[in-house]
Design goal:
single chain; mainly beta; Lipocalin; twelve-stranded mixed sheet; 12 strands; about 10% helix; about 50% strand; globular
Length: about 240
């Protein structure tokens, strides 16, 4: 699977410095989680999976990642019917772009882990639990300007499904809905999604410096690689 190319955002961010043009996750109140149906449990390979983020402000942008701690998908008749993953929030790091010094990236990493952002000591985990998966039936809007090829890096342009799930960050749970590309075979299931969320929906309200305000939207790129395990029954 091609590595998500988040570190070329400068092509448009340095001129406009808005969040990458991506699908905006539809955010609502938390919903009932998908039932634990019969099927085969696919365990998320935390080494082969990843979450990357982009945050922007008036003067520039930052990129980084957070590790996946655990996760699983339930597959029935070749389709995802339930699933979840856990983010290991103390591993969140700011690692780019290249023009930002390592010292500044380390300083931001510490700030992201503090109570002004994700408060990782109090909330060491963030979770996503699927509430629904259905075939994608919408349309894909392509950016229509000279930046089109690079902007495509921040959208799933061939979604197969619409996924909704409860995202919990800092103890606050909201349901988000977004397009995703999901592939399943007998041994491996993979899911890929790229979308923007509003950080304030999860209580992350730090504004930034008065002359360098932080944008509310955060871009997330999620790639899950899960390996098949043993079939499980309805009550397991």
């Amino acid at each position: 699977m091609k590595k998500l190319s988040y570190f070329i955002v400068a092509a448009f961010c340095l001129s406009a410095c808005t969040a990458p043009e991506s699908d905006k996750a539809k955010t609502t109140e938390a919903k009932q989680e998908a039932a634990n149906t019969s099927g085969t449990k696919y365990t998320v390979d935390t080494k082969a999976s990843r979450i990357e983020w982009i945050g922007t402000k008036v003067s520039g942008y930052h990129t980084g990642s957070v590790n996946i701690k655990s996760g699983e998908l339930t597959i029935s008749n070749g389709a995802v019917t339930a699933g979840n993953f856990v983010m290991d929030m103390p591993t969140i790091v700011a690692s780019g772009p290249q023009k930002v010094s390592e010292e500044n990236s380390q300083k931001l990493t510490g700030h992201l882990r503090s109570a002004e952002f994700f408060d990782v000591q109090k909330f060491p985990e963030a979770t996503f639990v699927i509430t629904d998966v259905k075939p994608f039936s919408g349309t894909v809007n392509e950016p229509n300007d000279e930046r089109q090829e690079k902007l495509k890096e921040y959208k799933v342009n061939n979604p197969s499904h619409t996924v909704s799930g409860n995202l919990t960050i800092r103890g606050i749970t909201k349901n988000i809905e977004f397009p995703a590309m999901i592939t399943v075979n007998s041994d491996v299931a993979e899911a890929r999604a790229k979308f923007n969320i509003n950080r304030k929906d999860w209580g992350i309200v730090y504004p930034g410096q008065p002359d360098d305000l932080i944008r509310d939207e955060i871009h997330l790129g999620i790639f899950l690689h899960a390996n098949a395990g043993q079939p499980m029954g309805l009550n397991k």
